UniProtKB/TrEMBL annotation:
Similarity section: Belongs to the gluconeogenesis factor family.
Gene Ontology MF term list: LPPG:FO 2-phospho-L-lactate transferase activity
Name of the protein in question: Putative gluconeogenesis factor
Lineage: Bacteria, Bacillati, Actinomycetota, Actinomycetes, Micrococcales
Organism: Arthrobacter jiangjiafuii
Classification via InterPro entries: CofD (IPR002882), CofD-like_dom_sf (IPR038136), Gluconeogen_factor (IPR010119)
Amino acid sequence: MTFLTGPLPVLPQTGAGRGGDTDGAPAVVALGGGHGLSASLSALRLLTTDLTAVVTVADDGGSSGRLRHELDVLPPGDLRMALAALCDDTDWGRTWRDVMQHRFQSRPGISGSLDNHALGNLLIVTLWELLGDPVAGLQWAGALLGARGQVLPMSTHPLTIEGDVLRRTAQGTRLEVVTGQARLAAAGVQSKVSEVRLSPADAPACAEALTAIERADWIILGPGSWYTSVLPHLMLPELRTALCKTKAKRCLTMNLSNETTETAGMSALDHLAEVRRYAPDLRVDAVLADPSVIEDQDAFAEAVAGMGGRPVFGKVGAATGRPIHDPLRLATAYHDMFGEN
């Protein structure tokens, strides 16, 4: 039953993209999931409010996995993180960001039903149950938080990601099918992901996400877990077609480390090759990369040119040296890139 009535909250849209706004800021769509998408959104919200996050919905671990299994809903965790990243850097925004990210912890020795649930996940699922519409629920959550942009799922159907993993053992190498984002993301350094798939393979893309891609000035894909946050957007047929056909300029943002549990042994060139394998018709205008993770800049530039674009090298990592993007450095790189085109 729907208890919330009246028109949906209208989020501010002030960009100068094909949406028709006039303040000079571009209309941007950022795709990904988890911490990688949060990093790009934290940077992009400094440049425009005509900002749409399109988020993966294949998570099956932790609080999100429990809610997905128990209530048959989209996994809310990556959507929650995207909303939190779009909160203003004000007392209001910081407070709501912390509220959304707060996790309940049971007393020692007690495994309560709320243990490790993020409050933001519960809030989002509550809105979905009241409204019966995942997109409307996210709009209401965004309005509550004063989000600088909107958050959309890549599909309104929960997705399952499955991968073929080559396991190296003392007896040799064997092929193993790993089902579930949480298990695939933790494949381990003694394994190599060789193929990934979404189920259902022909799930419809979120209509509002397709519209946002069509009217965008810039599309930002990545950073993030390559096989479970970035590539899934290229596996969904309707979404892949929209990304290939849009008139927007497209930027692929590389990770700050090639050695993750998903991509152990892969180089930056291997990451590009996987994008081309899953979306051979996708053309890019720019690939943003920190030079510290590019082994051969000439070879990298040649590979990017083969995708139709140019490499943009810049120091975008945190000053601590940890492999996380610094929002201000990333915002500066995006700002310069937007201004050159």
